[in-house]
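User: Sequence in, structure out. Go.
Assistant: Echoing your sequence, followed by the structure tokens.
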Amino acid sequence: MMKKALVALAISSMALSAQAGDVMLQEGFDDVFSLPGKGWVFTNASTTGGATDGWTQGTTAAFSAQQGDSTSFAGANYSSAAAGGTLNALLITPEFTTTWGNTISFWLRGAADDAYSDQIAFGISQGGTALSDFTFQSAFVVPQGEWTEYIYNVAFREGTARFAFQYTGAADMSNYVGLDSLVISDVPEPSTMAILLAGAMGLAMSRRRKRS
């Protein structure tokens, strides 16, 4: 059974029906190794460091991408930390301009193996890339066996921000997780803006299951 992921600074009981506006950032992860050249930041602060350095190109040995070529997704596995260690591998977006509301959508999937559970936490900063710059919500277990879409609606002051994906949890209890099809867009509709204004610096999330 999937567990609901709740955001620590969520706007309570927030129902959103706005359509996405202008696309500010879109990434299909066709070439994960090229992401630093686009402003993405990779940080592996796992204790202790393992055989791999956090997020990398997806592999069909685990599963295929949510869309596009079969390996066109970002993946991370338990070996980002040594045996007995704690995972803390971050994949951080480039800076994007914030309005009074931004929609961040993406797809996640865990490898189908009941013996393990992969955990992800999401965070946002005002443009910084240090771990201390981010406000993270609690980690949750990523659904296994199918891609699941997540949609975050961000209430944030006008300026810039970065969004972080934190692969976390005990390395010995983790396996493999994938990230695909990220889109960040603004939310221009006045009714949605009014709702977002009521929850300054909050994050709200809705989740939709769509395809296997």
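User: And one key feature?
Assistant: The first helix runs from residue 190 to 197.
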